[in-house]
């Protein structure tokens, strides 16, 4: 189980209101107590922070906002002593407008080799005043921005599938893959355990850059669905090469390095192509996150994953939340149930279900506390580029990125020392006091203890190793399956209690679970008597 650390919101060691690498290091004992196997760190590289670090200006350094390379080495060493692996977030689809190669491209003439590292093209129409094609960016607006040439005249356009501050790399230029191999080796030589790969189905675009039949699809869905911009067949060659680099290091010292991709593709079958034996080790399976709350929907996405992805020999990589999604408690219950009631019960049940499934599990920071989405942030504190680009609050991501509460009854809840009057970079609501880690650890019925107990059993029970999943007959609205030798997981997706689907020894439940009964919106594990 890997824990996603959103560095700027985890723990602030300097009092400037922004989390940092020293704060992550200070929080490692907490994560070890929870029982995680590793952490995935959000980008901490030098960046103008237009998209909170996913606009990278330099890939082999640390932004002073978060520390320096010496502090990173201390973090890596501390994690190793605690047996916690460290994965870095790498962003190969695009960089920052402040990357020195992009600055070189702006200074170069049209057709120069500096521009060939990106997607520069002449505009259409009179005087080239229209974009080269009709694609729209995922965060709103055209996917092209026109530059002013060094001589002051209106010039070419460059492609950016997210924001104008994030120009897309041209992976058909051999300089780009060579540069990223150097980035991989830099961090692998430092001792990292692997990489989470941002936009892993991206990188290559259709070579002709033609018009799309549905140019606003990405912006409308907030997903990478334009078939001309994503999931091109050449991208698999990149992952085969990166896998060979990681295998080279593993053969050298016997320590496997992990590649896990953010892969957004239409079907589980296409997803499976990314985790073939010579490509990525893992790829996030987002269909579980997107499944509606009913037994049939969950069974369908789990069955497809087990058939198409596990069939490649890879593990399915389950997720319920990340830094781009509405927090689970709120997503399952809606804003009217923030942090309590139905949303909480469903989120607890979903967590226990995920931990019972074969494969890897990733948890986003704060999910182990049951944090709700912060839905009422004022417009003037919002930082998400989606809001800046569209003026709409629909699907903005700031609400799941509010800094964690650690202790106390009022903001900053131990997140920052608040030196010189500094406040958390996003305001924390008063009700975060209910979810602070000190209270969670003291309350044995908390989300934190549910995750901790589930992870302890996950590590201790051989049935939860590589045993197959077998579906069991159950009444409508209940999902039940067996792992290994008689370990049963059952989830009641209805709101009414039902008879327990198995007789046996109860191991763990997401809520109060009387003998012989499975309450509504509850999951439970048993060892079967049969």
Give a structural overview.
- With about 525 residues, the protein is of the alpha/beta class.
- The chain has helices spanning about 20-35, 70-80, 100-105, 175-190, 215-220, 235-255, 270-275, 285-290, 295-310, 330-335, 340-355, 385-390, 435-440, 445-460, and strands spanning about 1-5, 40, 85-90, 120, 145-150, 155-160, 195, 260, 280-285, 315-320, 360-365, 470, 480-485, 485-490, 500, 505-510, 515-520, 520-530.
- α1 (about 20-35) links the parallel β1 and β2 (about 40).
- α1 runs parallel beside α2 (about 70-80) and α4 runs parallel beside α6 (about 235-255).
- It is globular, with a radius of gyration of 24 Å.
- About 45% of the residues are buried.
Residue share in helix: 25-40%
Number of helices: 14
Strand arrangement in the largest pleated sheet: 1-2-3-7-8-9-10-11
Name the structural class: alpha/beta
Number of strands: 18
Largest sheet: 8 strands, parallel, barrel
Strand content: 5-15%
Q: What ranges have pLDDT less than 50 throughout 5 or more consecutive residues?
A: none
Could you report the average pLDDT, rounded to the nearest whole number?
Answer: 94
Distance between the termini: 30 Å
The backbone outline, from C-alpha atoms, is: globular
Q: How many whole angstroms does the radius of gyration measure?
A: 24 Å
């Amino acid at each position: 189980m890997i824990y996603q650390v959103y560095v700027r919101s985890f723990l602030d060691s300097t009092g400037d209101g922004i989390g940092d690498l020293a704060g992550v290091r200070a929080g490692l004992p907490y994560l070890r107590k929870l029982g995680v196997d590793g952490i995935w760190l959000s980008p901490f590289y030098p960046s103008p922070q237009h998209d909170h670090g996913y606009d990278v200006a330099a890939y082999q350094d640390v932004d002073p906002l978060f520390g320096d390379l010496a502090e990173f080495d201390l973090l890596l060493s501390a994690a190793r002593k605690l047996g916690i692996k460290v994965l870095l977030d790498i962003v190969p689809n695009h960089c920052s407008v402040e990357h020195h190669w992009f600055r070189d491209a702006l200074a170069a003439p049209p057709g120069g080799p500096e521009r060939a590292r990106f997607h520069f093209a002449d505009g259409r129409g009179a005087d080239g005043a229209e974009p080269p094609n009709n694609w729209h960016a995922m965060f709103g607006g055209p996917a092209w921005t026109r530059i002013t040439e060094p001589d002051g005249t209106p010039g070419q356009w460059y492609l950016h599938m997210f924001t104008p501050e994030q120009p897309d790399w041209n992976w058909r230029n051999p300089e780009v893959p060579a540069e990223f191999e150097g980035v991989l080796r830099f961090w692998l030589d430092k001792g990292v355990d692997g990489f989470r790969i941002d936009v892993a189905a991206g990188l290559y675009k259709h070579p002709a850059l033609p018009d799309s039949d549905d140019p606003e699809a990405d912006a409308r869905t907030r997903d990478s669905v334009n078939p001309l911009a994503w999931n091109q067949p050449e991208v698999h060659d990149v992952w085969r090469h990166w896998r060979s680099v990681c295998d080279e290091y593993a053969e050298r010292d016997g320590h496997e390095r992990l590649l896990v991709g953010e892969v957004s593709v239409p079907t589980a079958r296409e997803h499976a192509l990314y985790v073939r034996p010579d490509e990525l080790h893992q790829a996030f399976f987002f269909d579980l996150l997107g499944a509606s709350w009913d037994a049939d929907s969950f069974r369908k996405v789990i069955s497809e994953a087990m058939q198409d992805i596990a069939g490649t020999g890879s593990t399915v990589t389950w997720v319920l939340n990340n830094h781009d999604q509405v927090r689970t408690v709120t997503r399952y219950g809606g804003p009217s149930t923030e942090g309590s009631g139905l949303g909480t019960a469903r989120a607890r049940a979903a967590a226990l279900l995920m931990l019972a499934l074969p494969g890897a599990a990733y948890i986003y920071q704060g999910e182990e506390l049951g944090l709700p989405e912060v839905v009422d942030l004022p417009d003037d504190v919002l930082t998400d580029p989606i809001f800046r680009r569209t003026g709409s609050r629909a699907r903005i991501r700031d609400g799941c990125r509010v800094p964690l509460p650690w202790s106390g009854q009022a903001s900053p809840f131990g997140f920052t020392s608040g030196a010189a009057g500094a406040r958390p970079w996003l305001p924390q609501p008063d009700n975060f006091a209910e979810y602070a880690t000190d209270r969670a650890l003291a309350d044995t019925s908390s989300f934190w203890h549910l995750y901790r107990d589930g992870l302890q059993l996950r590590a201790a029970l051989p049935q939860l190793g590589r045993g197959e999943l077998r579906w069991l007959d159950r009444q409508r609205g209940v999902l039940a399956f067996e792992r290994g030798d008689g370990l049963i997981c059952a989830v009641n997706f209805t709101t009414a209690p039902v008879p327990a689907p198995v007789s046996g020894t109860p191991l763990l439940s997401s809520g109060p679970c009387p003998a012989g009964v499975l309450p509504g919106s509850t999951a439970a594990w048993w060892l079967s008597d049969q």
